[in-house]
Amino acid sequence: MFRYCDALVDAGERRGLTTDDPRARAAIYEPVERRIRETVPYIPIYEARRVVVHIDGLRHYTVSPSIAQWWNSWEWEFAR
Question: Quick check: pTM over 0.70?
Answer without folding.
Answer: no
